[in-house]
Specification:
Length: 410
């Protein structure tokens, strides 16, 4: 199955217990985006708290999305366009705050990069602010401070028994208006009615003109169950509760053992052959890499031959207007690298080991050169490519030999 959308919960799924994306997981997610799969970060976190992770995974360059507030918003990372939002009306807050005060509970909500709360010293609120890189604004009355429409608000208490009682009370008295659920033992979330990750993900799937069969969703929490069940392939983390695992098509390793990376490697990357990816898509994915910087464009790709072009302009010429030898070698490595990727088995990668070039002539500014790579040795542990580079009038200007080593991925 060639999946097109990868939906990831964040805490307990994408991030390990130290709050980091491991090197293996990051590398795998960057690679899968280069092959055309879009990533969605689906989390209860506010959008502001997800943007640093989106930047780390280069979602802006690869047309990824943020699904924040457990489904309250969808944002395109590349355009910052708000594709969907459902909010709580401000006139609900006097009632919510009255109930919270009666029980001695803290109340908070989000506005841009700020948490607004009646108990700014509460340890869980301070942890939430730190987790999302937000500041805290302490107020006498949250209801009076909320002159906007938030996507959600939170009740906080260490008294789990009383929090459960309030949850059950509000499930009856707010039915048809708001939904309530506990996301942690100490957090009671209040969101607009019918907001959850699956319902909002369905909106994004329709917007992208995809089918649920095109989607992999991975999560570890109760809030992830609906999206795991919705996706064509729903995955529970190894650290998930048994009730979450029971709803999944597959259970991967924990977030401490690169569970996300394993799913991507074995269920997405193993099914994608670079030769099957359209050239325009390969070129688009390379737009922000060295290829894009030098203006290199693939024009043909097969198991035996790869071709690409590169302009001789201010990016690739020497100061006096002739093609730079280093740019020529970069072009040669580019075509030979794709050729080896096409030849590699799903569990293999190709790494450049040696390059040797003979520059026979020069190309001048304003020309476009063409590289033709042909395989001359295909071994189990190495590939050797011969790359010939021509001007637009088919004059041979460089002959380059590239040696790539073939390695197991992990």
């Amino acid at each position: 199955m060639n999946y097109k959308l990868l939906v990831l919960d964040v805490d307990g799924t994408l991030l390990n217990r130290r709050g980091n994306i491991t090197s293996r997981t990051k590398t795998t997610l960057l690679k899968v985006q280069q092959l055309g799969v879009r990533i969605v970060l689906a989390s209860g976190r506010p959008a502001y708290g997800l943007l640093p992770l989106a930047k780390e995974l280069e979602l802006e360059k690869n047309n990824g999305y943020i699904l924040s507030y457990n489904g309250g918003q969808i944002i395109s990372v590349s355009t910052r366009e708000l594709l969907f939002e459902k909010c709580i009306q401000p006139d609900m807050f006097p009632y919510l705050e009255k109930k919270a005060r009666k029980k001695g509970f803290a109340l908070f909500t989000y506005r841009d990069d700020t948490i607004i709360t009646n108990m700014p010293a509460n340890k869980w609120i301070r942890k939430e602010a730190e987790l999302n890189g937000m500041q805290i604004e302490g107020v006498e009355s949250v209801a009076e401070a909320v002159t906007f429409s938030p996507c959600k608000c939170m009740i906080v208490s260490d008294n789990e028994e009383e929090l459960v009682a309030l949850e059950n009370h509000w499930k009856k008295h707010l039915a048809g208006t708001l939904d309530v659920f506990r996301s942690e033992d100490y957090f009671l979330e209040i969101v607009p009615q019918h907001i959850d990750k699956a319902n909002t993900l369905s909106i994004l799937i329709e917007h992208l003109k995809l089918n649920v069969e095109d989607v992999i969703a991975i999560g570890d929490g109760v809030c992830d169950v609906t999206m795991i069940q919705l996706a064509g392939f729903g995955v529970a983390m190894g650290n998930a509760q048994d009730s979450v695992k029971a709803c999944a098509d597959f259970v991967t390793e924990s977030n401490e053992h690169d569970g996300v990376a394993l799913v991507v490697e074995n269920h997405i990357l193993s099914a994608i052959r670079p030769a099957e990816v359209p050239l325009d898509q390969l070129n688009e994915r390379a737009r922000h890499a060295l290829m894009g910087t030098l203006g290199i464009q693939y024009t043909y790709a097969s198991e035996k031959r790869v071709e690409a072009t590169m302009p001789v302009d201010e990016r690739t010429r020497q100061p006096f207007g002739v093609l730079h030898g280093g740019a020529t070698l970069a072009l040669a490595e580019t075509v030979a690298g794709l050729g080896s990727l096409i030849l590699c088995k799903p569990d293999e990668i190709a790494v450049g080991m040696q390059i040797s070039g003979n520059h026979l002539s020069s190309a001048h500014e304003g020309d476009t050169v063409r590289a033709v790579a042909t395989i001359i040795h295909k071994g189990r542990s190495s590939h050797v490519w011969n790359v010939e580079i021509y001007t637009s009038t088919d004059k041979l200007i460089s002959s380059v030999r590239v040696l790539n080593s073939v390695l197991k991925k992990w």
